[in-house]
Design brief:
The complex is a heterodimer of chains A (about 375) and B (about 130). Chain A is α+β, with helices and mostly antiparallel strands and about 375 residues long. In chain A, the strands form five sheets. A six-stranded mixed beta sheet of chain A has the order 10-11-12-9-3-13. Chain A has a six-stranded antiparallel beta barrel with strand order 14-17-16-15-18-19. Chain A starts with 7 loop residues before the first helix and ends with a strand. By secondary structure, chain B is α+β, with helices and mostly antiparallel strands. In chain B, the strands form two sheets. A six-stranded antiparallel beta sheet of chain B has the order 1-2-3-9-8-5. A three-stranded antiparallel beta sheet of chain B has the order 4-6-7. In chain B, a hairpin with a 3-residue loop joins strand 6 and strand 7. The longest helix of chain B has 11 residues. The radius of gyration of chain B is 13 Å and the shape is globular. At the A-B interface, loops of A face strand 4 of B.
């Protein structure tokens, strides 16, 4: 059997459909994926994301190391607790992983350190790559497998979490700005997420996870599985590693251009040269959103036909519960216009090309 | 685990068949099938009046997770389709043997009914698949 999180018995007691996810036995849903999705859009839901990998980076050269390792620039983190989304590239400019990095101390303070949250499916190669890249820096990398992680997401997520937590943690949550995280009584509480809604990601000791999960449930926060997590992130136009990008894909072809810090020009990060070459030549493909307002569901790996230009492929596709029709992310040739066709089970179906996201804060946001 | 009513007949491709008399049967997908699919979001049904043969594609059921063909378990003419599924495909999940039915056939060969699985046979088939 696979690895189990500290909340595994809770999932079983709630009747979750458990599936293997990169070697972890995780809840796909607790009855209805669509209902869980809607709960997050309308009120609050919670996800066990303890399978994700947390790596703390400390040492005298922590900042220099991360400025070398990551395509986004941790020098942009000007305040304690600020989070940054970044790609970690190989020398060919392909995406080894995407991650969130938090600055855990005042910038430039003695003992400055960072916390990285990387994908579970890429854990081993990430740790090997980071250790290898760290050899010529004075840094220590410390994985934190004993931390559980619970994401509480939705317009009422912070309010419900405040209800069940101590006065000091509740105050922190009410004051926390978007895309910041802070420590509180041994927990790390961040106002981040993967749903396109307001909410929190909370890292806490495993032996405190069950009580917190149960308190949230009593406060009306719906347990949600990986199924809803996927449709929520897709509506929010957020990439899924392994589907929308991987080591063979440049961030320039994965709608991640906004995460690349090419200034200052003298920062030599891994993959920089390859990125600059592709940027100068023009990326041959780009990641776009697709919308099918008629019947049917766009699915990953379906072929996209771009009249007069060539072909592309859907990287993630599903039904959007919020919109009531199908949406997808697809990698298509540069120069693709406003409409394309998708080969759906042998039928060519016209679909609209849009710029993601599709949904933010419960509302349709593309036109 | 899943519900397999005794009064129905089944085929290995996870459709159920209810004999409604006068050579007419109602057809849907089983509780086991809807559980595997997860939330159903679209159901594409054959046209009323269409002639189908046992084993033909007779529609598509799409869930959030996957698309799955629906097969005609018997031969005959489509005499009714469940139009409620257009606006409420979730009936397939909530009531697979009742309000979530798909279509009705006027059989061209009633003897085909004898070739179907009974509840025990279908349950054994599901166990063997899992």
């Amino acid at each position: 059997m696979g690895h189990k999180t500290a909340l595994h018995a809770q999932h079983q007691a709630l009747g979750a459909k458990l599936v293997d996810f990169s070697g972890w036995e995780m809840p796909l849903h607790y009855g209805s994926q669509v209902e869980e999705h809607n709960r997050v859009r309308q009120s609050a839901g919670m996800f066990d994301v303890s399978h994700m990998t947390i790596v703390d980076v400390a040492g005298a050269q922590a900042r220099s190391f991360l400025r070398h390792l990551l395509a986004n620039d941790v020098a942009r983190l000007e305040h304690k607790g600020k989070a940054l989304y970044s790609a970690m590239l190989n020398e060919q400019g392909g995406v080894i992983d995407d991650l969130i990095v938090y600055l855990m101390t005042e910038p430039g303070a003695a003992g400055e350190w960072y916390r990285l949250v990387v994908n579970c499916g890429t854990r081993e190669k990430d740790l090997l790559w980071m250790a290898d890249q760290a050899l010529r820096f004075d840094v220590t990398l410390i994985e934190q497998p004993e931390l559980a992680m619970i994401a509480v997401q939705g317009p009422k997520a912070r309010q419900r979490a405040e209800q069940v937590l101590s006065e000091s943690r509740a105050r922190l949550i009410s004051e926390l700005k978007p895309f910041f995280g802070q420590e509180s009584e041994g927990w790390f509480i961040a106002r981040t997420g993967y749903t396109g809604e307001d909410g929190l990601e909370i890292m806490l000791p495993e032996d405190e996870a069950v009580e917190f999960w149960q308190q949230l449930a009593e406060a009306g926060v719906a347990p949600c599985g990986l199924g809803a997590r996927d449709t929520l992130r897709l509506e929010a136009g957020m990439n899924l590693y392994g589907a929308d990008m991987d080591e063979s894909i440049s961030p320039l072809e994965a709608a991640m251009g906004w995460t690349l810090a090419l200034e200052p020009a003298d920062r030599q990060f891994v993959g920089r040269e390859a990125l600059e070459r592709m940027k100068a030549a023009g990326a041959p493909r780009r990641l776009v959103g697709l919308v099918l307002t008629g019947r049917g569901v766009l699915r990953g790996h379906q072929t996209v036909i771009v009249d007069g230009i060539g072909e592309g492929e859907i990287t993630s596709g599903s039904f959007s519960p919020t919109l009531g029709h199908s949406i997808a992310l697809a990698r298509v040739p540069a120069g693709t216009g406003d409409t394309v066709e998708v080969d759906m089970r042998g039928k060519r179906v016209p679909v609209q090309v849009v710029r993601p996201p599709f949904v933010r804060h419960g509302e349709k946001v593309f036109s | 685990m899943s519900n397999v009513p005794n009064e129905l007949k089944y085929v290995a491709s996870h459709e159920w068949i209810r004999d409604e008399g006068d050579g007419v049967v109602a057809i849907g997908i089983t509780d086991h099938a809807q559980d595997l699919l997860g939330d159903v979001v679209f159901v594409e049904l054959p046209d009323v009046g269409a002639e189908v043969s046992a084993g033909d594609d007779a529609g598509v059921v799409e869930s959030v997770k996957a698309a799955s063909d629906v097969y005609a378990p018997l031969s005959g003419e489509v005499v009714a389709i469940n139009e409620d599924l257009e606006d409420a495909p979730e009936l397939v999940n909530s009531d697979p043997y009742g309000d979530g039915w798909f279509f009705k056939l006027k059989l061209s060969d009633a003897a085909e009914l004898d070739e179907l699985l009974d509840a025990d046979g279908y349950a054994a088939h599901c166990d063997a698949e899992s």
